[in-house]
Design goal:
- The chain has 249 residues and is of the alpha/beta class.
- It has one domain: Rossmann fold (3-Layer(aba) Sandwich).
- Helix content is 31%, strand content 26%.
- It has seven helices and ten strands.
- It has a six-stranded mixed β-sheet, with helices on both faces. Strands 2-1-4-5 form a four-stranded antiparallel β-sheet, with helices on one face.
- α6 links the parallel β7 and β8.
- The longest helix has 16 residues.
- The protein is globular, with a radius of gyration of 18 Å.
- Pfam families: ABC_tran.
- One of its GO terms (molecular function) is ATP hydrolysis activity.
- Belongs to the ABC transporter superfamily.
- Keywords: ATP-binding, Nucleotide-binding, Transport.
- This is ABC transporter ATP-binding protein.
Length: 249
């Protein structure tokens, strides 16, 4: 790993655990002359309660890294510890269970089911976690209230604005009380005003103790976080870049 600036001042973190711990993680595609090193010996940690952005140019490895962190893909080599559990060698079924119980996902395009209401969309992850139907509805309602969508519980996606749909998607990501919220370009389909509102919500969620990791190519979005991990050519250039130093990378 190449580090180009001094690390940020460390807070007191004696009681905090590592939510993400990548140890010399590699991801290769092809072989011999066609070998592509999407990730080439990546190591870093993210502690509980952190608010991080993962950035880099197209093809830098940031999306591949996010897929591995989200248990959507596995490394070719190295180890990934999620919430202090080594998930590197897990089979697909086990990874699916880990994703459902440990992680909450927010995507650029919301991925809400159009035939379902807001509350029914938020209830979906709990169905796979074997939560009782009554508890599903109660927890989904609380999650929607948390993101200021309590008055839209019975609306379908086509009855909501883009920002409202993203708030529902965030409620869905929160409903299983994950150890980490993963957001992949969450403001990419939103206008600047709505982007500011959604980023304010992410900030509030992080302030409440939720670990947030976000992939973005937008500098203005990344500046809302508290730490930037910058990728280039499958490696980390800096894993503790302060947002105010973003223009100096």
């Amino acid at each position: 790993m190449i580090t180009t600036s001094l690390p940020l001042p460390l807070e007191k973190t004696e009681s905090k655990r590592n939510i993400v711990n990548l140890v010399n993680v590699c991801k290769y595609y092809g072989q011999d002359d066609t070998l592509v090193k999407a990730l080439d010996g990546v190591s870093f940690t993210i502690q509980e309660g952190e608010y991080c952005a993962i950035m880099g140019a197209s093809g830098s490895g940031k999306s591949t890294c996010m897929n591995i962190i989200g248990c959507l893909d596995t490394a070719s080599a190295g180890h990934y510890f999620l919430d202090e559990q080594d998930v590197s060698g897990m089979q697909d079924a086990d990874l699916a269970r880990v994703r459902n119980l440990k992680l909450g996902f927010v995507f650029q395009q919301y991925h809400l089911l159009p035939q379902l209401s807001a509350i029914e969309n938020v209830m979906l992850p709990m169905a796979y976690a074997n939560v009782r139907p009554k508890e599903q509805r109660e927890r989904a309602a609380l999650a929607l209230e948390r993101v200021a969508m309590g008055n839209r519980m019975n609306n379908r996606p086509n009855q909501m604005s883009g920002g409202q749909q993203q708030r529902v998607a965030i409620a869905r990501a929160l409903v299983n009380n994950p150890v980490m919220l993963l957001a992949d370009e969450p403001t990419g389909a939103l206008d600047s005003h709505t982007t500011a509102e959604v980023m304010e919500l992410f900030g509030e969620l992080n302030a409440s103790g939720i670990t947030v990791v976000m992939v973005t190519h937008e500098a203005d979005v990344a500046r809302n976080t508290r730490r930037i991990i910058w990728f280039r050519d499958g490696q980390i250039v800096n894993d503790r870049l302060a947002p105010e130093n973003l223009g100096h990378i």
